[in-house]
TrEMBL record:
One of its GO terms (molecular function) is oxidoreductase activity, acting on the aldehyde or oxo group of donors, NAD or NADP as acceptor. InterPro entries: Ald_DH/histidinol_DH, Ald_DH_C, Ald_DH_CS_CYS, Ald_DH_CS_GLU, Ald_DH_N, Aldehyde_DH_dom. Keywords: Oxidoreductase. It comes from Noviherbaspirillum sedimenti. This is Aldehyde dehydrogenase family protein. The keyword Nucleotide-binding does not apply. Residues 19-472 form the Aldehyde dehydrogenase domain.
Length: 477
């Protein structure tokens, strides 16, 4: 049994959670402890006490700890990548890539710990000096989804610790394995004072809810669905806690007549279907200009027919299963609703059998869709993409922006004029030109607009906005 980590001790839960491999449901990845509200409160109390010890250590102490954690993640990339792919279902290459990203994130924030500068302003009163500094928030609650089980925890935990906060971390119940392995590295290689970092696995309705409602938790960073995020946001605002929400997407990829078709197909394929489409930044709406539409659809179908869907751990697999039975059912329900709305299923959308029992679904491509249809309004979170045919660039832009979400958007074009205008006019927080909507750098700000995100940006130096609080002091020398 893999235990929770509370106040510097590995502690049994009140129940056990069975982690199942979605590529082979006969394969049990491990049994993981589930905490309850009482144990979660113990973790919050431990973090509350430990924050004072941690913030008094030097920035170099914190930088060294982040560096050690990052180094171990990078050295163990193969082993941890395999664990990630086994429990979540993304391909081995994607799993290893995600672990590398997590390692790089810790390395980046090792440096950032030393770069947390302040400001000195000229006073407007004679002899008065004005200093602006950033201090840790205190105890930060971190709640993460199942689709990036090591990278998302890393890009929240690393800045939280680097900037001097204590952490209570609740990973997604569906995939606790990578989160547990990361926590074990933080606990051992990080060598942090007891209570600075706590892992509490268990259901969101108990563990997550207790974190969100705890008065000792000053800030909550959440990534997950829009519904849960909004509820957490209301709770935090009601009690005056800082909150950062990264939620769903319905990301458009515009393909103009002048696009290089090979680039467009490869960008759409990767953006829509890699990681089984289970990315908040996935290109789920392909907005295609009429002149290239038929060639693009034909080229996509040809490429999709060669896409190898199979066991995530097999080296030739290009797309693994979806993560769970619930996710598979949700994907199928959306596929059925799109068909009922009159969309044409041009490819895929079928449950597949492989040599091991798993949640395999062939990548689904719909044509003849309209932007107002349910399939184009709601996040599916699976290997399902739609094609929306448009007449010109202006219609493409208006369609791309006509969504309640605003995480990522993309355009495939060889026109500098349209590329530049799209970068300016897109209502998303991240814009890609001739690149997939999914796939971002760890040193650059990450986040969206409208219904996709709320609060400060994540990642890069921008992360300091959420994990620190500004203090202004005046001194009469
Ligand atoms: P979810 O169901 O909202 O769960 C996210 C996390 O919140 C899980 O750890 C969950 O616990 C927890 N939770 C559930 N109810 C809670 C409550 N009442 N109080 C506190 N915590 C609670 O989302 P998901 O299905 O795991 O992830 C998929 C979603 O994440 C998609 O919508 C996707 O777009 C979004 N996402 C967004 C980004 C981004 O950066 N914008 C990145 C990745 C994913 P359990 O363990 O019980 O599930």
């Amino acid at each position: 049994m893999f235990k929770n980590y509370i106040a510097g001790e590995w502690i049994d839960g009140v129940a056990a959670n069975c982690n199942v491999n979605p590529s082979d449901t006969n394969d049990i990845v491990g049994e993981y402890a589930r905490a309850d509200a009482r144990q979660t409160t113990m973790a919050v109390d431990a973090a509350f006490e430990a924050q004072w010890v941690w913030r008094k250590l030097t920035a170099e102490d914190r930088a060294d700890a982040m560096d050690r954690i990052g180094s171990e993640l990078l050295v163990r990339r193969e082993e941890l990548g395999r664990l990630l792919s086994r429990e979540e279902g993304k391909t081995l290459a994607e799993g290893i890539g995600e672990v590398v990203r997590a390692g790089r994130v810790f390395k980046f924030f090792a440096g950032e710990a030393l770069r947390l500068g302040g400001e000195k302003l000229p006073g407007i009163r004679q002899g008065v000096e004005v200093d602006v500094v950033r201090e840790p928030e205190g105890v930060v609650g971190i709640i993460t989804p199942w689709n990036f089980p090591i990278a998302i925890p890393a890009w929240k935990i690393a800045p939280a610790l680097a900037y001097g906060n204590a952490v209570v971390f609740k990973p997604a119940d569906l995939v606790p394995g990578s989160a547990w392995a990361l926590s074990e590295i933080i606990a051992r290689a990080g060598n942090l004072p007891a209570g600075v970092f706590n892992l509490v696995m268990g259901p969101g309705s108990q563990v997550g809810d207790t974190i969100v409602k705890s008065p000792k938790v000053r800030a909550v960073s959440f990534t997950g669905s829009t519904g849960t995020g909004r509820r957490i946001g209301i709770e935090c605002m009601t009690r005056g806690a800082k909150v950062q929400l990264e939620m769903g997407g319905k990301n458009p990829l515009v393909i103009l007549d002048d696009a290089d078709i090979d680039v467009a197909v490869s960008v759409a394929l990767s953006g829509s279907f890699f990681s089984s489409g289970q990315r908040c930044t996935a290109s789920s709406r392909l907005i295609v200009q009429a002149g290239i539409h038929d060639d693009f659809v034909a080229a996509m179908i040809e490429r999709l027919s060669r896409l190898k869907v199979g066991n995530a751990l097999h080296s030739d697999t290009e797309m693994g299963p979806v993560a769970s039975r619930d996710q598979l059912d949700q994907d199928i329900a959306y596929i059925e609703s799109a068909r009922a709305d009159g969309c044409v299923l041009a490819f895929g959308g079928e449950v597949l059998q492989r040599e091991t029992p798993g949640y395999y679904l062939s990548p689904a491509l719909f044509t003849e869709t309209r932007n107002h249809m349910k399939i184009n309004r709601e996040e599916v979170f699976g290997p399902v993409a739609t094609v929306i045919k448009v007449g010109d660039y202006e219609q493409a832009l208006a369609t791309a922006n006509d969504t309640e979400f605003g995480l990522s958007s993309g355009i495939c074009t060889t026109s500098l004029k349209y590329a530049s205008d799209f970068r300016r006019s897109s209502s998303a927080g991240m814009v890609m030109v001739n690149l997939p909507t999914a796939g971002v750098d760890y040193h650059a700000p990450f986040g969206g607009r409208k219904g996709s995100s709320y609060g400060a940006r994540e990642q890069g130096a921008y992360a300091r906005e959420f994990y620190t609080s500004v203090k202004t002091s005046y001194t009469l020398a």
